[in-house]
Amino acid sequence: MTTDLSRYLSTFLSLYLPGERGISGNTINSYKDTFILLLIYYNNVMKIPAEKLTLNMIKAETITGFLDWLETERNSCTATRNVRLAAIHSFFRYLQYRYPDALDEWQRILSIPVKKADKPVVNYLTVDGIKLLLEGPDQSTKTGRRDLALLSFMYNSGCRVQELIDIIPSMVRLDPPCTAKLIGKGNKARIVPLLDEQVKFLKKYMKENNLLEPYANMYPLFCNNRNEKLSRAGVNYILKKYADIARSKNPVIIPEKLSCHCIRHSMAMHLLQSGVNLVYIRDLLGHSSIQVTEVYARVDSKQKREAIAKAYEDVMPNDEPSWMKNDNLLEWLKNFNR
Predict the structure, then answer these.
(1) Would residue 185 show up in a list of annotated catalytic residues for this protein?
(2) Residue 296 annotated to the active site
(3) 260-273 helix and 127-134 helix, angle to the nearest 10 degrees
(4) pTM for the full predicted model
(5) In whole angstroms, what is the distance from residue 41 CA to residue 67 CA?
(6) What share of the chain is helix, strand, coil (3-state, %, to 5)?
(7) Average pLDDT for consecutive 10-residue bins of the chain (338 residues)?
(8) Domains of the chain (ranges plus CATH)?
(9) 261 is annotated as an active-site residue
């Protein structure tokens, strides 16, 4: 027997979000995961199986209990808790107009506030750290050449993991001016420039794997040994492999935890340190607003203050910073916003 919850929830996920709201598949999957967890909570804690759960059994108090359960039983962080609450809020905003019979209860659920979370620290690598990371892949092997093309593309483009996974050969322009088209959050497309040095690795990799042929235009640009699109876990595995190699050579400049987003942060910080305007960095990263991008400016200012405090008597180093000696990168950064 179909319950009212199953009917409205399936319509919300399969029709309303993609059809009326134009929500991306990744966001829909995140929402779906939230409601799977909610059903598990009702089954395990409330002792109500999914096939018997109806809308009138969902109260603001039980939603609050579910959020607490996520933190205590599943060890979810505050940010994850808030993501789950955002999915629930979206569903009950939908129900306000599709099932107004319990409007008062829906509004009580919508009044559940997000939990204040500590702002995460923006971790990033220095240019020397990026160079050390890119020295890891063995260019004498096919896998090493793929990994070098992947890691250098990740840094050069400042792409998100999903953007890297979804890119196909037809979205890359290898003739000057070299660019790549990325599809970001909300299916918004943006064009990012590619460095000549990066394109050299990418072109070699694409030629070796026949990705320059017209028939391969819709193939994944980066794939695994089975010629399948890489997964998030696969991309993270590749990064961890070379982060471990780089850390063994110089643990000072390679942090213990290095994520794909850290590479994205690194590119943004290097642009900022070169004097590139935040507006251009925002557009390159595909941020929805300049306020999101301003986090890099705040981090950079904080580090400058800390550096001055630690070196009070010698704030002007005699030697030029090591990243300034990277002529190719510095020249590109200087000319990026012209």
Answers:
(1) yes
(2) yes
(3) 140
(4) 0.67
(5) 10
(6) 65, 5, 35
(7) 87 92 86 95 94 93 96 91 95 94 94 81 82 91 93 90 92 90 84 85 92 92 89 93 93 87 86 78 74 59 50 47 52 57
(8) 4-110 (1.10.150), 127-335 (1.10.443.10)
(9) yes
